[in-house]
Design goal:
248 residues, alpha/beta, 8-stranded mixed β-sheet, 4-stranded mixed β-sheet, globular
Length: 248
């Protein structure tokens, strides 16, 4: 199975009014080269939502994604999997040539995936699967989810571990160059949540523009700046504009 776990694909710019405009996403850290390498044909692109019921937001980001791919690497058909099409989930997944699991709120997306039994549906696909941000996090067997929204950091019932899609054992912390300075409910995200949790689970922190590619040989290919957070320590494992390969 071919997987890309990333913080994001750089699909849009903003104009002077703050409106998002789709653009050619380019080839930062060889992302376009790798998509071309692992997509077998360009018939069906499947965008999987993070919130099955927020169709307005889903359409907004799906259309930006579709426009960007049309500029960069066009597909014949573009489809969305959310509450409107979940009755077709099995058909959409099996017919897809590229599956994009979008970003959003990790627990909300995780619940959607469970509702449609995506863990079982997706395991037999031949498509390249790209997870962006929350989508990358939910690809793991056991998903690590630090608090994100206000209230989650002080909620004793907030669950930081979920059953994911089981596509990999790699847990990522996306947008690390941003979230390393992030506070939630007055608590430092990395120091007060991620580092203590790293005694339970290894966490690969990746900057925006970086990603992890897992190929058919289960080699772990890290592109761009990345860190391993393990047993309370943060270790830089790759530099920007570099590639590192590990075998799990």
């Amino acid at each position: 199975m071919r997987l890309i776990l990333t913080s994001y694909i750089d699909i849009y710019d903003k104009d002077g009014m703050g409106n998002k405009l789709a653009k050619n996403f380019g080839n930062e850290n060889e992302i376009l080269d790798n998509i071309k390498k692992y997509v077998q044909k360009y018939d069906n692109f499947l965008f999987v939502a993070s919130d099955e019921y927020n169709t307005e937001a889903t359409d907004k980001y799906a259309n930006l994604t579709f426009e960007s791919f049309n500029m960069t690497l066009p597909f014949k058909n573009y489809n969305i999997l959310d509450s409107r099409t979940k009755h077709l989930a099995n058909k959409l997944v099996q017919n897809a040539d590229l599956i994009f699991l979008c970003g959003g709120h990790v627990p909300t997306q995780n619940q959607f995936f469970n509702n449609i039994n995506l863990r079982d549906i997706i395991k037999n696909t031949n498509a390249l699967i790209i997870g962006g941000s929350a989508g990358a996090m939910n690809m793991a067997d056991t998903v690590y989810c630090p608090p994100d929204l206000e209230g989650e950091g002080i909620d004793p019932k907030f669950n930081r571990f979920y059953k994911g899609l089981g596509l990999t054992n790699i847990n990522v912390l996306p947008h690390y160059d941003v979230v390393k300075d992030y506070y939630v409910d007055g608590k430092h995200l990395v120091n007060e949540f991620v580092i203590p949790d790293s005694y339970k689970i290894d966490i690969y922190a990746i900057n925006n523009g970086s990603y992890i590619l897992i190929d058919d040989d289960n080699a772990i290919n890290i592109y761009g700046e990345a860190y391993l957070i393990k047993d309370g320590k943060i270790t830089k494992i790759n530099d920007s504009d570099m590639k590192k390969t590990m075998v799990m």
